[in-house]
Amino acid sequence: QVQLVESGGGLVQAGGSLRLSCAASGHTFRWYAMGWFRQAPGKEREFVAAISWSGGNTYHADSVKGRFTISRDNAKNTVYLQMNSLKPEDTAVYYCAARESGSNWIPSDYAYWGQGTQVTVSS
Question: Which phi and psi angles does 30 have, rounded to 5°?
């Protein structure tokens, strides 16, 4: 089992940057593909980015491509989301999640979730 704790959210002006971290417990972290999702008020949870267990493959939603970058450090049991050029529409609660199989983009394919961290981008 994996427990996930996100950090790094906050309030930032448009055009600014934030780096989210997701710390995982358990020695099996390196076996899981990891993903970041976000959910804005009144909207469904949406895929943001994903990374394979080795870190060799990454995937980003079109809406964040070129601005956000997912990475992981298996020695530190941590996955990151570097967010640059933030826009007001990026405002949401951001969640990290872990999966053993299935699709990068489908939330129900992820077995473990963090509690989320709020990101607010002011215009």
Answer: -70, -10
CA distance 106 to 74: 23
For residues 23 and 42, is the Cβ–Cβ distance under 8 A?
no
Are 64 and 49 spatial neighbours (Cβ–Cβ below 8 Å)? yes
Q: Where are the alpha helices (DSSP H) in 37-90?
A: none
| R_g of the chain computed on alpha carbons | 13
Type of residue at 74? N
pLDDT at 26 over 80: no
Tens digit of each residue's pLDDT (9 = 90 or more) over 82-116: 999 999 999 999 999 999 988 999 999 999 999 99
* Residue 88, SS3 per DSSP: helix
Q: Rounded distance, CA 123 to CA 86, Å? A: 10
